[in-house]
Each structure stands twice: as structure tokens, then as C-alpha cells.
């Protein structure tokens, strides 16, 4: 991130997809100066970057020059293609061939040049000017070519979310999911292009995205949209929790309006009772979990890329040759990054999953290989409700809802492990405290071991270490150290609960 922490360093393959926290605004890339753009100077070459002064424009020129020249060439290419279309025998093609541009060879070059400008240049700049222009180009490309052979529709939802056009994003995805091409070249409902289908209920069941053939980009966008609403609902809850007894009710209602990000949120959350807000929160969690499960069905790599994005984003491979999961991450990760509270909520859910996975493996006295030591991150959506409860808890860390759930061994931690546990029952696993020549018979004693665990539900640190094969500990020191830190942190000579 640059010194002003306002814009990404587009020379870095990864950072170009990481935007600043909060809504997009006109910002100077070298200082905190921002605003509505009226007081900032705009680069006349690329039209995508603004500066607070000429001095900062000159100072930023070495870093900006390469990207600026590339976008100028892309605009020149687009202008040349538009000239060719207008010189075509049907000179009024922009009026007479609307919706059918891809059906004619002379107009395809124009569509491709315009799409390249969006995907390879405007999207990477990530400024308010560039994202707004990209959205305008995208809308016009869909107007000119209803079939959307270039798949411009995959870019649109994330662009809308970055500009806080949340209702428009939901309507767009819903309409394309119902009427647009799903593996075919069928034309979408023309009412979509005319903007007649508006104002759909964002709290409705997401049945239109629950098919195995659903568009990956659409699922990701609706997950982000619903998480954005969930963060706003949690902000309302936290605000009331802190200020309810300190401010008059009228003033509290006014304060709540300043903690919301989505334009949809005021209608959904303001002046609602705590009970109604709780119902909305759990409905959103339910929808997100359903969409997350279908996300795994559609593409089981996206969740891993979302939590570990460097490898997927830090590549110079052209988007056309990337797997669909990496392409979806490129289009949407900046929207995740810019939406405050969403990534921390997901990271907390991931930590809950990792702790539960380690705790369950140790409880069953299993040895996990390096590959098996990492749980399937597609299960993270199951633990999102624990992260939601943690988000509005202000007490000691050890008493957080997720920590209590781990310590008490609640049943709601186990669904994510049931499939893995069922697989383990058919495998031969070496047990802790056994010698190598006994490993072949360990699986015969699993039931007896589990019965012993049920009778003795606590274990001290010394007893824990006495059951571990010294050779196993030496070969897997990092894993055992992590397990002891997790289970005995702050307990000293005390005991831990399975």
C-alpha cells in the first residue's frame, strides 16, 4: 500500500487487487486528501487517478507512468475499433443492431476492445473514476450484445458492490440467474436491459443460485452482499449494546445511521426491535451457509483461494487462461477487501474451524499427516455463526462464544467433522503412546480407546505427554507444540476438556 494508504500499488501483482477499506472515494495516492473530486486534479491521460496538487502528480509519475500509458493505448484501440464500426456500410449500427453486435464480425473487435479496457485496465486501477467508468462500459456492452458471449456479466456484480449499488447488484444477479444464459446462448429477459425488474427482496431464499450449474461469480457476489448486510446488522447490535443506556432513544437512532454501509440496511435494520434484528441476522447466516455449501458444489477451490489469495492473485497469467475460481477471485477480491468487517468475520470463522479440527483430532487421539492436518476450508461456512456471536462479544477472549463451544464440546461443533470422522473409521491410524511394531493392531482398539476417553474426560499436561510416542513427537514437533498451546494455554498444570 502506498504512503497515503489510499490506493493500491498496481505494480504489485497482488496488491493491485486489494483496495482501501471503506467506500470508494476520490483520493490522492500520495496523501490522505480525499473528497467529491471537485478539489482534486485529474490525470488527463488516463482519466482514472486524481491528485491533491501538481507536486504530488509529478512525484507519483514514475510509479504511474507505465499503467497510464497502457490505458491510453487501450483507449486508442477502442477508438479505432469504434471508427471501423461507424465506417461499416450500416453506419448507424449503434442504433439498428443493438442487442445483436456479436452476430456480425465487423462489430466483434469493438466489443472485445471495450471488454479488454474494463478487465485489464480499469478494474486494476481500482479508483472511483475507473470503477464507475468500468460499470458504464459493462452496462453498454450488455445492451449492445444480449448474448454476452464475452461474459461481461461476471464482472458486473462486484463492480456494483464496490460502488455500493447493492440493490442493483441483487436485481442484476437475480434476473440473469433466472433469464440469462446458463451454459447456453439464450438471450436474457429484455426487461433486464430496460431496467424494469427492480427492488427484489434481498432476504428471500436464494433458490435461484442453489443449482449445481449456477454461475460461480453470482454466488460469490450474493455471499458478499449478504455478509455486507450481516456486518451492518452486527454493527447495529454492537451500537445498541454500548450506547443504549447512555443516550436518549432518538439520538441512538440517529447514531445507528452512521454505522451502516449498505444503502439497503436502513430499511432493513433501523427502528427494528432486537428480536426482529436477531431473526434477520440468523436468516442471513442461514442463506450464507446455504450459498457457501453450493459454492463448494460449483467450485471447491474458491474457498481456499479466498482465504489464501496470494498465490491466486500474484500471477501474471492472462485471465482467459486462469481457472474459473482464480478468475472469480480476481474480479471480486477488491470488493471483499473494501467492505469493512467481512474478511475479519470470515477469518474468525476460519480460526473456529481450525481450532475445532485440531481439538477433534486430538480428542480422538489421532495422528494427522501434514495434508490431513488442514481441514477443508469449504466447511468454514458452518462456523460463521460462531464468528457472528464473537463479533458482538466484548468480554475476555477466553470467554468468547467460540472458545466456550470448544471447551465445552458442544454438539454444534461436530457437523463439520462428521464426514471426516466417518472416513477415518475405515482407516488404520497409529495411536499416541504406541510403538511402531504395534501400529498394525491399533485400529482394533479404537472402540476401547474411545470408551476410555468417555470415562476419563480430562487430561493433565503430564498425562498428555506421557501418552505420546517420543519418536512421533520428534518427527512432528510443530504439530504437537501447536496442540499443547491450544489445549493447555493459560492452564499451567491444570486439565483440559475434550
Number of distinct helices: 22
* Percent range for β-strand residues: under 5%
SSE string, helix = H, strand = E? EEEEHHHHHHHHHHHHHHHHHHHEHHHE
Q: Are there runs of 5+ residues with pLDDT below 50, and where?
A: 1-8, 181-187, 190-195, 361-373, 427-457, 489-498
What structural class should be given to the helix and strand makeup? mainly alpha
Q: For the largest sheet, list the strands in their spatial order.
A: 1-2
Nearest-angstrom radius of gyration?
Answer: 27 Å
Question: How far is the N terminus from the C terminus?
Answer: 43 Å
Helical fraction equals 55-70%
The coarse silhouette is: globular
- What does the largest sheet look like? 2 strands, antiparallel
Number of strands: 6
What's the mean pLDDT score? 78
3D architecture notes:
With 498 residues, the chain is mainly alpha-helical. The protein has 22 helices and 6 strands. It has helices at 54-87, 93-96, 105-125, 128-144, 156-162, 166-179, 190-194, 216-243, 249-256, 265-269, 274-298, 302-307, 310-313, 324-338, 342-363, 384-391, 401-408, 415-424, 446-455, 461-466, 470-475, 477-488; strands at residues 26-27, 34-35, 41-42, 50-51, 458-460, 495-497. A two-stranded antiparallel ribbon has the order 1-2. Strands 3-4 form a two-stranded antiparallel ribbon. It has a two-stranded antiparallel ribbon with strand order 5-6. A hairpin with a 6-residue loop joins strand 1 and strand 2 (34-35). The longest helix has 34 residues, at 54-87. It is globular. The relative contact order is 0.07. Mean pLDDT is 78; it is low at 1-8, 181-187, 190-195, 361-373, 427-457 and 489-498.
